Amino acid sequence: MKTRINILIIASLIALVVLSVIQYSLIENTFKLQRDAFFKEAKQELKFLEKTDEWDEAYATILKQVVLGYEDPFNSDEKLFTSFYKKRDSLNEKFKSYFKKAIESKELAFPITYQKNITRAILINELGRDTLVSAKNEPVLLFGNSLNEATRYHVNSGEWSSMSSSKEENDNLSIRDEKLGFVIATNSYIDVKNWRIEVLKRMFWVLLASIGSIVTIILLFVYAFYSFIKQKKNADIKTDFVNNITHELKTPLATLSIATKTLQDKNVQKNEVIVQSTIATIDRQRGRLQNLIDQVVNNSLGFEDIQLEKKEVNPKRWLENLINDYQLQQSDVKITSNFSQENSLLKIDKFQLNTAVLNVLENAVKYGADTITISTAQTESDFRITIEDNGIGIAKNQLKKVFDKFYRIDNDTVHNVKGLGLGLYYVNQIVKAHNGSITLDSQLSKGTTVTIKIPV
Of 323, 425, 311, 408, which Cα lies nearest the Cα of 366? Predict the structure, then answer.
């Protein structure tokens, strides 16, 4: 059975992981599609950049001026770029101002920043060709701002050459010059501040449905597993209960059977002494059976079903009388009392609380205690009864279960102890019916302490 449960758990967990991975993959793909659609919209807002030939011409003019300023530009790469950067910066400031005004006029819901880089630059003249910038080098900023590589989005690639002066469909620009030519490849990028948040907003319902479905499945799995474990636990407890009560019933029933057969014997019927003794045995066993039935019926009640008849009692006098009566039955158990000197009255159902305290005392004796200390204390809010014993104690992993219905302590040293697992359960229900609380603290081989708190 345990192997089957483990297999079920492992299979369920694997199914959950696979489902989660598939769901994550779907969300990731949806995110990418929404991201591309979002940047496509942003790119549409930058259509005005395709109609800015004057900026391209201004850039080409600057590049020509810089190159023509050197007799041998092939051997002047560093100086050439230094001169170019100075003039490029001035042009770029004008471009950024132009770009800012154009974007502001569109009144977009999200701010867009733009970057255009030179990724490859080749100089051509009568001396030959020279690569000024290659794909292996760091790109050179042409227009706009330097954007974060992790967040920017590529929108366009273009190439300018000296072979043509027209602008082609792929945003290429060429400049014809018989003495000087160049080929320049560019990449354009845009960045939108907090664009991920904007994309996630568009995916809100998809995310909500996906996350909600996964969470729901996980919760259902946890609940189903919890219910399964709880049902198995209840089934085991009920099985133990049936076994215990069957064992408890066998002795009186066997005794009654023997007594009945004895009374049927004609020779016995003539002997008055044997008849009376047998009848007394039958009466005792009847009482024992009645006690078992009462214990099952009454001790199985929940605190909502317990009918209380509260009366004011003096707690000290009430407990003294209770302990004295119990001491007469358990003369071999040493009971010490340490009662509070408060004279206030306590409104309780005396019969029910008698049952609760006696159940705790009997439990202590049943599990090896020969010394019991009962003490009381009173605060502004409650009256406390503390019962300490020197019994065998309870393991920590079982402390939370001792008040469960039908639960019996699993301990090899007490397997012969009789009981139905209803004693402490009923104690807890009685205390709850009084709007009180009960706590239990215990250590193996050292004893147990039970504290009952009843509101004043």
Answer: 408
Please tell me the distance from the alpha carbon of residue 86 to that of residue 268, in angstroms, as a whole number: 132
Answer for the pair 385, 357: CB distance below 8 angstroms, yes or no.
yes
Asked whether 200 and 207 are in contact (CB, 8 A), the reply is: yes
Confidence of residue 173 (pLDDT cuts 50, 70, 90): very low
Q: What count of other Cβ atoms lies within 10 Å of the Cβ of residue 370?
A: 13
Which position has the token pair 């845009």?
190
pLDDT at 168 (0 to 100): 40
Tokens encoding 352: 């029910």
What are the pLDDT digits (tens) for 371-387?
999 999 888 888 999 99
Could you tell me the two tokens for 419?
């009981």
For residue 428, what are the contacts with CB-CB under 8 A and spacing of at least 6? Answer: 303, 403, 438
Q: Reply yes or no on whether the pLDDT at 72 is more than 70.
A: no
Query: Among 195, 75, 89, 178, which Cα is nearest to 140's?
Result: 89
Token pair for 426: 């009923």
Burial (0-12, 13-18, 19+ Cβ within 10 Å), 289: middle
Q: Rounded CA gap, 306 and 298, in Å?
A: 9
Question: pLDDT tens digits, residue range 329-363?
Answer: 788 889 888 887 766 788 888 888 888 888 888 88
pLDDT in tens, 109-150: 777 888 888 888 777 766 666 666 666 667 878 788 888 888
Q: Which residues contact 430 (CB under 8 A, 6 or more apart)?
A: 303, 306, 349, 352, 353, 355, 356
Residue pair 59/142 in contact (Cβ under 8 Å)? The answer is yes
CA distance 376 to 342: 10
Q: Is the dihedral angle over the CA atoms 106, 110, 111, 115 positive or is it negative? A: negative
